[in-house]
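User: Hey, quick favor. My workstation is busy. Could you predict this chain's structure for me?
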Amino acid sequence: MRPTRPRCSLAALLGLTVAGACGGGPQPQALTPLRPDSAAAAALAIRPGDVIKIQVWGHEELSGDFPIDENYNLLFPVVGEINVRQMSVAQLRERIRADLGQLLTQPFVTIVPLFRVAVLGEVVKPGLYSVDPTMTVFDLLALAGGPLRSAREREMRLIRTGEQIQVSIEPTAIARATLRELGIRSGDQLIVPRQRFTREDLGLLLSAANLVLIAYTVLR
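Assistant: No problem, here it is.
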């Protein structure tokens, strides 16, 4: 007698193929949007990792980008080391104006904090970017070259020290809200997830299904 070959169910094989292509992993956890009051409070604080862009008009030698180190210190020309722990941007500006006022006549000082934020996932140029807190999430995506066709922009997430925070689920809300209003700060990672099923996945699925049909024809 000829040995019997194991018979495979075409439906079962196709089912496994579809499951592999669509991804059977757990869905991202539903996250709570940031509260407006916590976002407003976050906007006042200067943190390690921030870069402070300082412009002293008429004095380019005193202007530039100055990082905040891990001890909350900012090293500024002439003035020296300034500790910015629990200090707002407005307070830092007044501090620098007061210190420079001892050397200059009515110095005009502007300060803009720059956050270091990583943009990862389905974007053209994933990486680390220095961003102005008045920018929106769409501006941040534009810095990274924009989302890919496979991106799920409506399900973007923010990763902060291992915790996932939902940015927003409404594109119009993202367009209006600034990074400061969303509470985004240095060290955060904006994750743009991939669609669960893309055209590329469809091509792979069709190729796999073709192989399954060939195998089924041979094994039956």
